[in-house]
Write a structure and sequence with these properties.
The complex is a heterodimer of chains A (146) and B (62). Chain A has 146 residues and is mostly helical. Chain A has 2 domains: 42 residues; 66 residues, Arc Repressor Mutant, subunit A (Orthogonal Bundle). Chain A has 7 helices and no strands. In chain A, α6 packs across α7. Chain B has a two-stranded antiparallel sheet with strand order 1-2. Helix content of chain B is 73%, strand content 6%. The longest helix of chain B is centred in the middle third of the chain and has 18 residues. Chain B has one domain. Classes of the chains: A mainly alpha (146), B mainly alpha (62). At the A-B interface, α1 of A face α1, α2 and α3 of B.
Chain lengths: 146, 62
């Protein structure tokens, strides 16, 4: 700019700089996004070997299943009775009465406390506790037979 | 030589002119190649390539 507020620099240079700057910014953000995506998708070899080789395969599978269950629970999805893998346990659970099964389900899978369950089922807390522990004892007795 | 001529020559494939343009914009490229305060060599190379592309693609609008 000179005294009369007139532009004296190179117009082409300004335009080129603007053009260059915008495309460089675009490239930069693309590069960074790509880098973050790659970093998230990568698993380090050490970690992989540890999970695969350190413990037997069946155990790791079991652990993974348990983790999946926990994740689902955190999102509010609870497993169904018929999804349980232990057949013996399922059979003994099915021999319980409807009410006992409902209470076990609420306490074990949905993680409700006894007072909450009492409110939900219109029963006093001590009754809920009694029914629950009696049912658990029954299941234990039935499970011992295996 | 003014910038317009220089850019035109670079566009025509003159190595010297291209080098000069790149040198002119080096500070800007280095500044944009910083990631969290550290200089990223790969990003710098990408930006250099982008600059060469820009030199080729730039057209003066009449």
């Amino acid at each position: 700019m000179n005294k009369n507020n007139k532009f004296t620099g190179s117009e082409v240079k300004n335009k080129f700089t603007t053009y260059l700057l915008s495309s460089i910014r675009g490239k930069r953000s693309y590069y960074l996004k790509k880098k973050i995506r790659t970093a998230n998708a990568e698993i380090s070899v050490d970690e992989f070997m540890q999970t695969e080789m350190g413990i037997p395969f069946e155990e790791s599978l079991e652990q993974r299943l348990k983790e999946e269950l926990l994740f689902q629970e955190a999102e509010g999805i609870y497993p169904e009775w018929n999804e349980l893998t232990d057949q013996k346990l399922v059979r003994s659970l099915l021999r319980l009465s409807e009410e006992e099964r409902k209470l076990i389900y609420q306490h074990v899978f949905e993680g409700k406390t006894f007072p909450e369950m009492g409110l939900m089922n219109c029963l006093p807390t001590y009754r809920i506790k009694g029914i629950y522990f009696y049912a658990i004892r029954k299941v234990r007795k039935m499970m011992e037979g295996r | 030589m003014n910038f317009e001529e220089l850019l035109f020559q670079a566009k025509m494939g003159d190595e010297k002119a291209t080098k000069q343009v790149l040198e002119m914009y080096q500070p800007l490229l280095v500044k944009n190649a910083l990631v969290n305060g550290a200089f990223d060599e790969d990003l710098y190379q990408e930006l250099l390539l982008e600059t060469l592309k820009c030199i080729n693609n730039f057209r003066k609008l009449e």
